[in-house]
Design goal:
The protein has 7 helices and no strands. By secondary structure, the chain is mostly helical.
């Protein structure tokens, strides 16, 4: 689980919640402003992260890390990277379609070619 960014980001948020970070209304308001989200959306995001972390712990213990990794795969291209390449913001639906399309595109072959070209001595 350590190498899975999705889980570790959720873990960080869950640990911040456990430490009381979201109990301070000033912190929540600052997050709301910096993220350009309503306070309720910040709280919802925190709740989803805590739930994901709790699920990850349960699944990880029950099934083992390898099985868990297949349920929550790493994201190859972040939303910020995709939007940078596209030159505009992407909707959630477009991101979902992109996540579905990438494995069936030429991108896996290109990544494979890049990795194959790595010098193992570097």
């Amino acid at each position: 689980m350590w190498t899975n960014d999705t889980v570790q980001f959720a873990r960080l948020i869950a640990e911040l919640e456990a430490a009381g970070a979201f109990a301070d209304a000033r912190i929540t308001a600052t997050l709301s402003a910096s993220m350009d989200l309503a306070i309720d959306d910040v709280i919802d995001l925190k709740t989803r992260a805590v739930r994901l972390w709790e699920d990850a712990k349960s699944i990880g213990h029950a099934m083992g890390t390898e099985m868990w990794e297949s349920l929550y795969p790493r994201q190859l291209i972040t939303r910020a990277q995709a939007e940078s390449w596209v030159g505009r913001p992407l909707s959630d639906g477009e991101m979902d379609r992109l996540d579905d399309a990438i494995p069936n595109s030429s991108i896996p072959d290109a990544v494979g070619a890049i990795v194959d070209a790595f010098d193992d001595n570097e």
